[in-house]
Amino acid sequence: MTFSQTEIKLSVFFCPKNNIIASVTNEFNMKRAYVFPGQGAQFIGMGKDLYESNTAIQELFEKANTILGFRLTDTMFGGTEDELKQTRITQPAIFLHSVAKVFALGDAFQPDMVAGHSLGEFSALVANKTLSFDDGLKLVYQRAMAMQKACELQPSTMAAVLGLDDAKVEEICLGITDGVVVAANYNCPGQLVISGSIDAVNKACELLKAAGAKRALVLQVGGAFHSPLMEPARVELENAIHNTQFNAPICSVYQNVTASAVTDVNAIKQNLIAQLTAPVKWTQSVQAMVADGATDFIECGPGNVLQGLVKKIHKEANTASA
Known about the structure:
By secondary structure, the chain is of the alpha/beta class. It folds into two domains: 5-152 and 228-321, Malonyl-Coenzyme A Acyl Carrier Protein, domain 2, CATH 3.40.366.10; 156-218, Alpha-Beta Plaits (2-Layer Sandwich), CATH 3.30.70. The protein has 15 helices and ten strands. The chain has helices at residues 5-14, 19-27, 48-53, 55-68, 72-78, 81-84, 87-105, 120-127, 133-153, 166-174, 198-210, 231-242, 265-274, 282-291, 305-313, and strands at 31-36, 113-116, 156-162, 181-188, 191-197, 215-218, 252-254, 261-262, 294-299, 318-321. Strand 4 (181-188) and strand 5 (191-197) form a beta hairpin. Helix 7 (87-105) packs parallel to helix 8, helix 8 runs antiparallel to helix 9 (133-153) and helix 12 (231-242) runs antiparallel to helix 13. The longest helix is centred in the middle third of the chain and has 21 residues, at 133-153.
């Protein structure tokens, strides 16, 4: 029996818990990757459908409210955009929604590998059992608070650069010595985000446009994520991570810092700490997953941004939302 890529993709999308899907996957040696979005994927109403339709998920959401000491779900379901985009709210909200999607899929539908974009790496580590839900949420909230404090210490920003080779963007950033500006997010070929001090990022944007970039647009973000300016947050997060229980994962996590499969618990910790000041190598991570056999990429969390990036990195990939 043969199946077209389209048939397999539709089966995965519509029937994630169907045992027939598992037999199709085994026959073709296909591998399933769970991918998790980062900050920016949030929207008002996120997770409300899961909360209202699934008692177990409702209990998970209420548990999150208890752990955090405030009703995160009130802001997720009916807050304002300004409230939701606060880092201390955004990060735990996206984490909660993403992990809830995994819980809704159930244990019968397990990933062969996982990866998360920035914040999403914490959701990925819950999905592959490295972190418990409770510990993952606590770390995410500590990370969010530490990042927010780091942003307040020094005005900083990020900018999206489209239509220019990564090497050229890196070269231009390296040539700016008055201030800090570095490559921060390698999202897909032709799409890279830079990060740093405001004047340095603005100067880089001018030079990048002159070098042929289709766009170099400063983003409305709270600070310079994934740059050296996050060092105070990195130090704070390091202490929290070393005081958290990490378990042996059930499958590899492709971490932002290395863009390679990692299963060693100590390495996972070190990469998670380094992530705050290092670039997110998303393009390279997806390429590595494909090289290791990933065919189906299931996005767990709000939105579908990662599905679009995966398709731009590897157009033959099957993508779906959890």
